[in-house]
Amino acid sequence: MIDAIVKRTVRYRQHSFIRVVRRTLAVIFPLALIGIIAQVLFIVFFSNDGYLYNVLSIGDWVPKVVLTKAQYSLLALSQVTIEMLTVYAAYGAARYTAQLYQIDDQVPGITGLVTSLLLSVRYTPNHGVSFDQNMMSYGSLLGGLLVGYLVGQIFRWLGKKNRLKPGQPIHTVDIEEQVAAYTRPILVIMLGALAINFVLNLVSYYSSYTQAAALMQSLSSGNTPFWLELLMVCLTTLLEWLGIIGSYNFQLGTDSTEAMANLNYALAHHTAYGVPYPYLGSSLYNSFANFGGIGLALALLLAMAIVAHSYNE
Q1: What is the per-residue DSSP string for 254-273?
Q2: To pair with 196 at 20 to 30 A between CA atoms, which of 15, 40, 46, 244?
Q3: Are 247 and 236 in contact (CB under 8 A)?
Q4: 47 has pLDDT over 90
């Protein structure tokens, strides 16, 4: 039994996607740590409702111009770190996937970054362009890793099989030849990203997100089977990981009729035991899937930095 578990664990760790994910997360870890520290400082010290801001009366003795600039600086730092972490993950995953198969990693890395940005572009009604922040921030990190890994694999499948030689000097001519050899995979990736971007913008324009969310909420409200509630929670969590707003993000957990019935029952009987709707999808999601925050994330990252001592690839 132990031997089987060890073999499965080794096989799991040797999978190309897992190796790429581990290397990419190791690279973007400092950016995530810095960004979360910046958010903690902003909320605790420089926000008007921050704990230490009010305890130390920072607003009374710090000049307003200094306080404002500090707020903007911390916000800018968090915006270019954790709020763009998915873009960096796509770049790193594409690079390390290419390195895993010993092909040039510069062009795949840049292509992964551009692909991630292209998938995040949204068109406004006044013919403007904006970026979907949900698909760029740390919440959609899994989506960025998948995009980068797929980009690297496409370069492996369609690119010219020029293997890198250790210690071989790279000149400008070599880079130009390599870029020319990568024309086909770049075109395939860009056309595919444009097609997906077109579909995502159509879905956003016709508010299909909201309609689909309403349908999912209706399926997971009332006295529906527990397995269906759990399925909707898992689907919402997966959509969140991919940077797509899930069903329970459009409605607070206390907005539905069933949730209000549970709340009234608990207030009347002074206990939540015996509520009419014991398994609500929104309650399950908000309690078990959507929890934590920057404080929990900071604690987790610090614990990983202190405890982790992995030296293998």
Answers
A1: TSSHHHHHHHHHHHHHTSST
A2: 15
A3: yes
A4: no
